[in-house]
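Dear colleagues,

As part of the handover before I leave the project, I'm documenting each prediction I ran so the next person doesn't have to rerun anything. This entry is a single chain, and its sequence is reproduced below.
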Amino acid sequence: MAQSNPTSPEAIYGKSAKSFTLATGSPGELGLLQALGEAFDKKEGARLVWIKAGSGASLKLLKNAQVDMIMVHAPDAVNKAIAEGWAVNRTLIGSNEFYIVGPKNDPASIKIASSGADAYLKIANTQSKFISRGDNSGTHQKEIDIWKKTGITPNGSWYIVTNDFMTASLKKANAEDAYFMTDSSTWVAEKDIAPNLQILYRGDPFLVNTYDALAAPVGATANRDIAVKFIQFVSSNEGQKIIRDYGKSKHREPLYNDATYAKQYAH
């Protein structure tokens, strides 16, 4: 399940005595967090303790002062967190985008869709199988926003909820010959696990996915000051280069765009 054992570490990057906790989902699954954490440990002498959680769960962990910082892609929820005062040091760190992938025969004909919402409308009207993470992650929140644009509340046997993370949900979509909205980073890194699927819709600016880093307020958690240093590192030239280049050597294309690119889509 996507949000089981919410404060149990998924991995630790670095070997120093000092540490801080960071909750996030896909950037950890895809290895970006390891690259950033190990570079930070060499520079600042503090290891990164990764708590695996989607954006919704990560925000809840920060609100409850159970982690020092988070990396999330949920702009509306982030705006609310900042306004309420339980999250600080908001920093745009990068972006990717959402692709709608699906069976190669494209039963809902979303290849000719005019927008992400139009693609969803075609899927619903044909009752083609669709995988939803259903876990209040940033991906799930974006999915809900798109459904709102269509005026449809999805339900029925064609609408399959996994309550799981991105990679597991992509595997499920492949097994079910279903449509799924995956982030581009996961698709670049993991598309071999979904040989029955292909990218069928992309390019709607609404599907660009911006990532923010947020820290707990002063005094809220034991190691938030180290977390703030990590946020500063990630937004520095060194950190941004890691993000900009991550994945190139293995996949021949980067998995993420940097903050400069992401800024044009931030809201």
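The chain has a mean pLDDT of 96. The chain has twelve helices and eleven strands.

All the best with the project,
I.
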